[in-house]
Amino acid sequence: xKTLKTQVAIIGAGPSGLLLGQLLHNAGIATVIVERQTPAxxxxxxxxxxxxxxxxxxxxxxxxxxxxxxxxxxxxGFQVALGERQVHIDLHALTGGKTVMIYGQxxxxxxxxxxRQVAGAxxxxxxxxxxxxxxxxxxxxxxxxxxxxxxxxxxxxIAGCDGFHGVARQSIPADTLKVFERVYPFGWLGILxxxxxxxxxxxxxxxxxxxxxxxxxxxxxxxxxxxxxxxEKVEDWSDQRFWEELKLRLPSALADTLVSGPSIEKSxxxxxxxxxxxxxYGRMFLVGDAAHIVPPxxxxxxxLAASDVSTLFNILLKVYRDGRTExxxxxxxxxxxxxxxxxxxxxxxxxMLHTFDDNDAFSxxxxxxxxxxxxxxxxxxKTIAENYVGLPYEAIE
Length: 397
Ligand code: APR
Ligand code: PHB
Prior knowledge:
The protein is of the alpha/beta class. Helix content is 36%, strand content 28%.
């Protein structure tokens, strides 16, 4: 058996694991990341693209903000479409100057992978059978197989950054965890295309045919989504069918100017809300998608991962620098306060913007009216805006 030793063993090289690794490395705390997939696989997964101010600041703090600051698009607002109407949510004015950054998760991941390589910190890709051990003891470790050999990685702490399907959460005895879950009766069909965005801001459209979202990755690359039933098959959606359906769900002023083009990627993602409590077990901490999932409507998934990373990083910093081990106990409760607020916002935006087939006529009208009320009232727009730009991170005292 090969053996290795580090301070913090990180399972998973997604945005959570890589960002935590970079912050710890910069602070002089050693990490090893163990990842199941290849670097190319991790790099190419297409996910979200809206960064809250808090995440933007954290990426800069980690020293990986340069390309984001030159290539990312600062958005000071977004559009809500209701049938033929369009309402501007002026994030900047409604939040006292806050904005969001449009910069794809693929780019964030690429920047973090490059920085880790420059730092010379170890990431073991294509590791199989990864298992955390001894989390309740003072000497936890992670075992895995790589290139036909068994490895043992000894550490002080384990960060479970291995996403929703990861091993970290599944290694915690089920009777010590409480699971909260809601599965929605629809998914999002998304396409990526090299076409100019239909609007210079994101457009969230509620329509009787179903929700649509016009997002972007740059001024030349678009990411558009359609609400589809959960059993829908991507093979049944030609590019042409996608563009036609999208136009039907947008106000005609937008539909008329929409530029279509061949898709570079097309996939269907289910919508789910999921939280596990607590987010820690002994010396192992769950971070990001390993602990919670939100439906994508409020663009909170990646941003919540970043706030978990910030909390764990700031706690570990105080543990290693000042011996403040009592803070470790607080990780889960601090994270969960913010997690639940983002869960609520994502669920609420999802319920106001989508059509639910199983809803009775009364519920349908109530949700239409709720969206109209919120976008037509200054107080309502403020509520949407302050959640969208991201609620503050809690300080670790
Ligand atoms: N062993 C090792 N690595 C694993 C294992 C395992 N058993 N299971 C999963 N992984 C790896 C995955 O291959 C992936 O690279 O863990 C990583 C988890 O990454 P993500 O799923 O991207 O999760 P996270 O880093 O928390 O990113 C936050 O929020 O809403 C989302 O789109 C957003 O993906 C983003 C996420
Ligand atoms: C995206 O660009 O992929 C995106 C943007 C906003 C969302 C969800 C996804 O709310």
